[in-house]
Amino acid sequence: MQTIERIPQIETGIKNKWQYYVFDALIAVTGSLIITGMIYFSHLYPRISDIVIIHLIWIMAMAIWRSRYAAIIAAIATFLSFDYFLVPPLFTFTIDDPIQWVALFVFLFTAIITSWLVGAVRKSAEEARQNAHELRILYELIRVCNSTNNFDEQLDIIALSTLRIFSSLGVTECVLLSPDQTGQIQVRADAPICIDEFLPTPEEIRHVTQVYKSGVHAVIKDVNVPHSLVHYIPLKSSSHVFCVLYLRVLNGVPWLEDEVVMASALSNAYQPAEFFRTFLDQISSLIERSLLREKLAS
Question: Transmembrane ranges (predicted)?
Fold first, then answer.
């Protein structure tokens, strides 16, 4: 158990989309207004014509600290506030001098392009860090599974590891099921560890049997357990299904669904569904290898 606890958990990266956008917008607008207010009350413009560079630094900071979305909002807020409070005639969105229009639009264009590039660099760095974290998860999983040659122990490790890794994403129960020599569905491993063993209901056995035969992922809403979905996931190599992975996931955490868009690219939100597919391929390979070793030993 201690070795399993060394396996890192997946980082959720799931944010409430609306709250995330609203919070970023508030920070961006508030910061831009504060900087513009400081320039206005200090009478730095037009004495220092390039004072708008301070705003550009703020926009770049938003791209690095928050997101490209926040930086773009900051650029637009700066454009409007600078026009309203500092460019004659004051307290209007009209400009007498056409050159000022050109200067402001050049600033807006430069700020948006700069924030987009800085945000792209930030996103690349975040993706590299996340990839390293995922590789460590897979490495630790393989290392723990290779610590024993007992097939049942390896299945227990896979079940416990799956629950640990994805518990932060709403996974509350993980079971591995497969048919025995007589074709009866049996539980090979389950997590979390409880006094009472997991006993599938006749309805659950029917779903497992269907998924085992069809090899198609099925999602069933469990009416007996509120706010939860049960995923029946075939673990297979090519067209041969080794066993079925039973995952109970809290309803409202739709990271397993390919068609669900988590958060837009502007928020740099991490999407764990792709890693989960890689994880399934890895545990399928581990089970296939263990089954082959078991057959050779017999």
Answer: 21-41, 47-64, 69-87, 99-121
